[in-house]
Amino acid sequence: MAVVRLSVFWDRMKQHFGETYAESLAKDYVLAELDGRTIDQALADGESAKRVWEAVCATFDVPQRLR
């Protein structure tokens, strides 16, 4: 996967989960692949959008076209 910009990350999140659920998921769902952090926490800690997106894809059934 190429570099994922933060704007592209959020676009993909909203395409797959819907705007409201994407925001809720990012705030509340803890991902093991992110060392027990939420998406919001990982991004705030400086984790790359690419790594966070890869963790989302590993956790949820994200279609290939959005990977």
Q: Could you characterize what this model shows?
A:
The chain is mainly α. 58% of the residues lie in helices and 6% in strands. The protein has 4 helices and 2 strands. It has helices at 6-17, 19-28, 39-44, 49-59; strands at 30-31, 37-38. A hairpin with a 5-residue loop joins strand 1 and strand 2. Helix 1 (6-17) crosses helix 2 (19-28). The termini are close together. The mean pLDDT is 93.
What is the radius of gyration computed over CA atoms, rounded to a whole number of angstroms? 11 Å
Largest sheet: 2 strands, antiparallel
Structural class: mainly alpha
Spatial order of the strands forming the largest sheet: 1-2
Instruction: Give the total of beta strands.
Output: 2
Series of H and E elements: HHEEHH
Mean of residue pLDDT? Answer: 93
Number of domains: 1
Terminal-residue CA separation: 7 Å
**Helix content, binned percent:** 55-70%
Q: How many individual helices?
A: 4
Gross morphology: globular
Instruction: Give the strand content.
Output: 5-15%
**Low-pLDDT residue spans:** none
Strand and helix map with partners:
Layout: H1 6-17, H2 19-28, E1 30-31, E2 37-38, H3 39-44, H4 49-59
Antiparallel strand pairs: 1-2
Provide a compact summary of the structure:
This is DUF3046 domain-containing protein. The chain has 67 residues and is mainly α. It has helices at 6-17, 19-28, 39-44, 49-59, and strands at residues 30-31, 37-38.
